[in-house]
């Protein structure tokens, strides 16, 4: 790798002699520093797709976007996060982008979130000056004051999305050439865009789809730059000097965009206030890992869809689990399992409003709000849609040429028995802070227990949604036990003593079956009945209190997973050669599983080992403290959809486990999570 190259007018021989002396002291004498080989073109050295971990994530609780280090919006779907993309360069370099930054410079000097927010700040240095760019999806005070919202079903909040992607620029030193390029591509790059001016001068333009424009969003670009229109692209270029300010606002509804830089700055400030007021509700420990907890909480909040209370599994589709492989899925939907697990994480930090909204969403999709009873399915669209038909987009190259690109998710109608236990466990946690179970939800919860009773003896696709044949997965049976156990406890709270007694008895029956068929001769829980294969989901045995931490089978299982189901110390979901998941190729280590292992190690008393693993996992965080689904153990590269709710919720649980164990050990006992062991 070439670290430094000399300017063409300064040959290597012209370098000071002491430079060579210092360099050669740390390098092999066989390397001739005075005769460098020819340099490959820079384009050949640089992958056009940025690393997944280098993207910044923005949200306004109604949609999300990803911004590359070069200052380009490369993923934005409007008006909803599961709508077709209008900028999709993350999946194909020609599928739409929106760049704002210095001309001719693509690597920033620094990037950060403003503390306590999802506002991105990028600092740029050029040969002639410095720029600071801030990006946000704008939040403002609740604006539906004279008429009710047509999209919001949940209780109105203090803050609401304004449906504006706002970008501000300030030149803080010298002079800098600023360029803006906005080139949308509607419907996943299947429909082109046509721009036209919508004002008398050059400060505003509108982009519409070239085909069936009424079926696609209209994008409005407003700026104090002079916008030029060149085919599919709106562009601008200007020389900024110290003290100059620029704003660019992209909007897609009738909410008014800022017309001046001061109005833009005011909107940026109110967005900051929104995020900081929300994060201030939480209970965060005074600990060096506090920043990771706050960033994970902000990310989970950013993955919520406030109009319905749904919670996305991730912001993206088809970012590969295997480099250039086929394990590419659409995660822009609300998985019941992922959402309920995410509530664990938010509850741990004292953030519970999201749980109220999510259970209202469950009441919607189950029919409880209309005196109906529908069985829960694995996942839903963020508006409660039940059909999520999977489709492959063959015209897109895929991220770093990983194909196919998929939209929709064929797992929506799978049979997965763990969802009943997931939702009942989460609601039990929710109910512990309340006097009673809401009347509208009790029939829904009772229905989940009945489904678990009806189906727990049958095979399913499991927590990992395998596309091979259904199996008797042990973790699915454990979660059926959770459904009966938590259902019985909720029945007691509800005053339904007969149900409580009956469900406790069935829970005992399920437990006996698992201990008979799901444990091998070593006393280790196995992936499925009749197999010796390991599975990381069996860490839930201790995390759900199926067995106490001091049970030998718990300890044996946790240590077996730590020692035998890892690569470079990071946890796999399962060995692909031992599991019929219906797919080819390898996959990376699942980061949620590694964080689960941290929590499980703490539970069995292996606190030092847990802390070492937790420190290592935190070191794999992106520069902005974000995580995708997987980590490639050999390189530390993040893989899969981004950012991933599953990973961030497990981080919260793991970090709090370690902090709590340390405080218990030193006797301070100051910080306790909301979901401390029952």
CATH fold field value of the largest domain: Glycosyltransferase
Helical content stands at: 25-40%
In the CATH hierarchy, the architecture of the largest domain is Alpha/alpha barrel
| Helix run count | 16
Rg estimate, integer Å: 26 Å
CATH class of the largest domain: Mainly Alpha
Q: So what's the overall shape?
A: globular
Which class do the helix and strand fractions yield? alpha+beta
Q: Any idea how many domains?
A: 3
Q: What is the overall pLDDT average?
A: 89
Tell me what portion of residues adopts beta-strand conformation.
15-25%
End-to-end Cα distance, whole Å, is 54 Å
Main sheet characteristics:
15 strands, antiparallel
DSSP strand count: 26
Low-confidence stretches: 1-44, 673-678
Domain Trehalase-like N-terminal: 50-126
Pfam family, one: Glyco_hydro_15
Keywords: Carbohydrate metabolism, Glycosidase, Hydrolase
EC number: 3.2.1.28
